[in-house]
Design goal:
By secondary structure, the chain is an alpha/beta fold. The chain has a domain of about 230 residues: 2-Layer Sandwich (Dihydrodipicolinate Reductase, domain 2). The chain is built from 16 helices and 15 strands. The protein has a nine-stranded mixed beta sheet, covered by helices on one side. It has a six-stranded parallel beta sheet with strand order 3-2-1-4-5-6, sandwiched between helices. Strand 9 and strand 10 form a beta hairpin. Helix 9 crosses helix 12. It is globular. The structure holds nicotinamide-adenine-dinucleotide (NAD). Nicotinamide-adenine-dinucleotide binds next to loops.
C-alpha cells in the first residue's frame, strides 16, 4: 500500500489530522465527516482552495463509514470515541482515536474485544508521549540509562477557562462540563507509561473542590484530580491533571541510576522540548554528578513544522499510517496501553468517591477479569451510565442555573461575531499550529 486512505470524523480538532493527511507521503485524505455544517463547509472551502479535490464530505457517521477507505481518525467528542471505534473496526477500518479511548469499563472491554476479534489496528492518539523531552526519556530508558523505574511525577495543567465559551458553546451537557476531575488523565500519565512500558496495578485518587472560575462557566468538575498510581514493579507515579490557573506540562522520572526531567514552563528553557538528565553508575549524592541538558532533535524533526503540541501531532499520525503499512518500527499506543493510561483516572475517581480507599486496576488483558466488568457502565455521562450514573464531583453534581449557560452562550456568540462569523472555524483555518484544540 503506497498511501493509507484516511477519513476524519470531527472537523475542528480533526483539522490537525486532516492537515497531516494532506501533506503526508504515507497517507491521503479521502473523506471528512462532521455534523456541524460550518465546520464541514469550512473544510471543503479550504481543501478546494488548496486544490484537494478528491475528498468526500459527510454530515453523518453512518454514511461516512461506508466510504471506501482503509482507516478513520476519530476526533469527535472525548466521551464518545469507543462506540464509533467499535463500529469502524467492525466495518473493516483501522482506527486512530483522539483522547480519551473510552468512558467506562463496559466500553473498555468491548473495545479490547473488538480489536482482538477484527484484527484491525487501533492507535490511541496520546500525542504528549511524542513530545521531544518525554520521547527522549523513552529512548534513554530503553537504553538502560535510568535503570529500574522507581518514581515519577507528571502534570497536565491547562486553564481552559478563558476559552470555555468557544469550547462548550454554553451547552449544559457538553462533555467538558460533565466529566470528573480524573477523566482527562492521559496527557499526564500517558508519557510515563509509554516511557517505561510498566502496567498500573492500583491507584488512590484525590480531588480538590470546585471553584468559582469553573462554576461560573458551567463546568461541574473539581478543579484538579490527582492519581497516586502503583506500577507492577512497585514504582509509584504521582499524576495531576486539571484547570489550575497557570498551565504546566511536565514529566520527571527517577530510577536506580538517577533522574530525568523536562523543563518546567516557568524556567523559560524550551519547556517540554528540553530534557535534563542526571544519571550515573555511582551512589547517588556520593558520586560525581554529571548533569546534561539539551533539546533533543527527533527523527523526522524537519517534517513537524506547523504541527501542534510541540510537533507531537505529527508523530501520532505518522506512526499510525506506518503501522498500517507494516513498518515494524512504527511506534503506536495500542489498545492495551491506551487503557493502561486511562484506567488509573477512572479508578482514581472510584477511589475518591469511596473516601480515598486504594483501588486495584483490573488487568483487562486477562479474559476472565473482563467478565467481572463487561456490564459496568459507571461514569458521569447520563447517556450511557444507566443506573450506574456517578456524580461529577465527590460532593455531588452541582445544580448550575440555566442563566450561567445562557451567559456562556452569549459570550460564545459575541466571540463568533468578532471572528468572521465563527471563532473556531477561523481558528482552524489558520492551521494546526494555531489551532491545537486549546491544548497546551
Ligand atoms: N490530543 C490533544 O492534544 C487534543 C487537543 C484538543 C482536543 N483533543 C480531543 O479532540 C477531540 C475533539 O475535541 P473537542 O471535543 O474540543 O471538540 P471539537 O471542537 O474538535 O468538536 C468536535 C467535532 O466533532 C463533531 N462531531 C461530534 N460528534 C459527531 C457525530 N456523531 N457525527 C459527526 N460529527 C460529530 C462536532 O460537530 C464537532 O465539530 C476530543 O476527543 C478531545 O479530547 C485532543
Amino acid at each position: 500500500m503506497e498511501k493509507v486512505r484516511i477519513g476524519v470524523l470531527g472537523a475542528y480538532r480533526g483539522s490537525s489530522m486532516i492537515n497531516y493527511c494532506k501533506r503526508a507521503s504515507n497517507a491521503e485524505l479521502v473523506a471528512i465527516c462532521d455534523k456541524t455544517p460550518e465546520a464541514l463547509e469550512a473544510q471543503r472551502a479550504r481543501a478546494e482552495e488548496e486544490g484537494h479535490t478528491n475528498i468526500a464530505y459527510y454530515d453523518n457517521f453512518e454514511d461516512f463509514i461506508k466510504h471506501d477507505m482503509d482507516a478513520v481518525v476519530l476526533a469527535n467528542y472525548a466521551t464518545e470515541h469507543a462506540p464509533f471505534a467499535i463500529k469502524a473496526m467492525k466495518a473493516g477500518k483501522h482506527v486512530y482515536s483522539e483522547c480519551l479511548p473510552v468512558q467506562n469499563m463496559k466500553e473498555a472491554v468491548e473495545l479490547i474485544e473488538t480489536v482482538e476479534e477484527t484484527g484491525k489496528i487501533y492507535a490511541f492518539g496520546e500525542n504528549y508521549c511524542y513530545m521531544a523531552a518525554p520521547y527522549e526519556m523513552k529512548k534513554l530508558y530503553e537504553q538502560g540509562k535510568l535503570g529500574e523505574f522507581e518514581y515519577g511525577e507528571c502534570e497536565y495543567i491547562h486553564n481552559c477557562i478563558p476559552i470555555w465559551p468557544c469550547l462548550t458553546y454554553g451547552e449544559r451537557d457538553h462533555w467538558r462540563n460533565n466529566v470528573h476531575s480524573c477523566f482527562y488523565c492521559t496527557h499526564s500519565i500517558g508519557p510515563i507509561i509509554h516511557i517505561t512500558g510498566l502496567k498500573p496495578v492500583s491507584v488512590t485518587g484525590f480531588e480538590t473542590t470546585m471553584n468559582e472560575r469553573m462554576l461560573s462557566n458551567g463546568s461541574k468538575t473539581a478543579t484538579f484530580g490527582i492519581q497516586m498510581i502503583t506500577l507492577e514493579n512497585g514504582g509509584i507515579i504521582k499524576a495531576i491533571n486539571g484547570n489550575l490557573y497557570k498551565d504546566s506540562v511536565w514529566y520527571s522520572i527517577y530510577g536506580s541510576k538517577g533522574r530525568m526531567e523536562s523543563a518546567r514552563k516557568d524556567a523559560q528553557a524550551q519547556y517540554h522540548e528540553r530534557i535534563y538528565v542526571n544519571c550515573d553508575e555511582f551512589q547517588g549524592a556520593y558520586g560525581e554528578e554529571n548533569i546534561e541538558t539539551y533539546e533533543p532533535v527527533q527523527d523526522l524533526a524537519g517534517e513537524t513544522q506547523g504541527f501542534g503540541h510541540g510537533g507531537s501531532d505529527f508523530y501520532t499520525m505518522y506512526n499510525f499510517a506506518e503501522k498500517i503499512k507494516g513498518n515494524p518500527k512504527a511506534d503506536i499506543v495500542d489498545v492495551y496501553e491506551a487503557l493502561d493510561m486511562f484506567l488509573p483516572g477512572l479508578f482514581a475517581y472510584f477511589s475518591i468517591l469511596d473516601g480515598g480507599v486504594p483501588k486495584e486496576i483490573p488487568n483487562l488483558r486477562d479474559k476472565a477479569v473482563r467478565d467481572l466488568w463487561r456490564n459496568n457502565t459507571a461514569c458521569t455521562d447520563p447517556k450511557v451510565a444507566g443506573d450506574m450514573l456517578l456524580p461529577t464531583c465527590k460532593t455531588g453534581t452541582p445544580d448550575i442555573p440555566d442563566s450561567v449557560y445562557a451567559h456562556v452562550e452569549e459570550l460564545w456568540h459575541a466571540e463568533a461575531e468578532k471572528e468572521d462569523g465563527n471563532y473556531r472555524a477561523k481558528a482552524f483555518k489558520q492551521g494546526s499550529k494555531e489551532y491545537t484544540g486549546g491544548g497546551e
